[in-house]
Structure prediction request, 212 residues.
Amino acid sequence: MKYQAILFDLDGVLCTTDRFHYEAWKQTAQEVRAPFDEQINQRLRGVSRMESLEIILEGSPLTLSGEEKLRLAEEKNDRYRALLSQLTPADMGEGVRDTLKRLRAAGLRLAVGSSSKNAGFILRQLQAEELFDAVCDGTQITHSKPDPEVFLKAAEQVETPPARCLVVEDASAGLEAARAGGMDCAILGDAEMPFAPTYHLDRLEELPGLIL
Prediction:
C-alpha cells in the first residue's frame, strides 16, 4: 500500500460539532458587539481558539487587553464544552466507524490530528478512543494549522514517515498543513480549497476504495 498511516482531522471529518462552535462563538461575538454569520464561522474552521477570537474581533469596535481576550476565549470554551456534553456515540455515524475499523483491519495506523484542545473529550463522548493508535491535539502543539506541527507530531506518534501518511481533512487550513508537512491529503466535502487535494471525498466511506 502507498500509505502506512491515516491522520484524521476530527471536527467535520469524524463527527460534526460545528453547531456547537457556532452557538458558542455567536455569544462571544454578541458580547464584543461584532457581526457573526456562517461566512465568518467558516474562517474559524481548523484554527486555534485564540486565532478564532482574533478573527471575530476584527469586526468589533472594542480594544481588549490580553487578559480580556483570554477570559473571552475561556468563556467560549466553557460554553462549547457544555454543549459537547450532548454528544453521543450516535454522532459518529456507523459508516464512519465501520470505515475506521476496515482501515485498521488492513494494517493501517490511525491517528487524530486536531488543533482542538477538546479532542480527547470529544472522542470519549463518541466512545471512539479505541479506534485510534494516537491522538495529537491542541494541548500538544505550539502552532495550529496551517502549520504542519499537529500532523508531523501525529506521524511521529504512529512511527510513520510523513511521505507514507495520508491526511483526511475538510478545511483549507488542514490541506495547507498537510502539504507543508510533506503529506498527501484527502478532502471531505465541498468547501473551497486553495489548491487541489490528492483525493476528494463526498463521504468518508469512499476512502478504503481509493487507497486499499
The chain has two domains: 5-16+90-211, 18-84.
